Amino acid sequence: MPMVQVTITYLEMEHPASLRAKRADRDDVTFERIDPPDPRVAERFYADVGNAYYWIDRAEWTTAQWRDDIAQPGVELWVLRVDGDEAGYFHLTQPSPRTKEILYLGLLPGFEGEGLGGHLLTGAIERAWEAGADRVLVNTCTLDHPAALANYVARGFEIVRTRTEWRDLPEG
Q1: Which one in 17, 45, 80, 160 has a CA-CA gap of 20 to 30 Å to 62?
Q2: pTM higher than 0.85 for the full model?
Q3: Which domains does the chain have, with CATH numbers?
Q4: Distance, CA of 145 to chain centre
């Protein structure tokens, strides 16, 4: 396994007025809430979106672990659809009362570069505020999509801290 240096950036937004929304320039883009959250949907999107970015923390989770995780209070799972097809998702959690965290967010392969990332993130932030959050958290790292950090900052998130660590990455 190769060792790589990874920088993790933690961001937060403390007021809905901080959001600089970005919308997709097309009419066939919608959000669907998976309610109640389905562990199979969460697991599938985690793998299908995250494989390109070394999302490995939950790669070996069982369906029971996914079920326990998404059964936590405040967890929401949303799917972005383009012309009815699944294009991406976001997974919200509630780490403390009145705080929402965008735990996972991303586009499926083939939907990058179409202006959907800003729309997806805008939807996740708006949903967090609608759910009663007083603050919204997210983090990203240098293994994520190259535009991730810029998208978070462009939507109004403030960087609150960074840290660097070494990680073993799987081969292949």
Answers
A1: 80
A2: yes
A3: 3-168 (3.40.630.30)
A4: 11
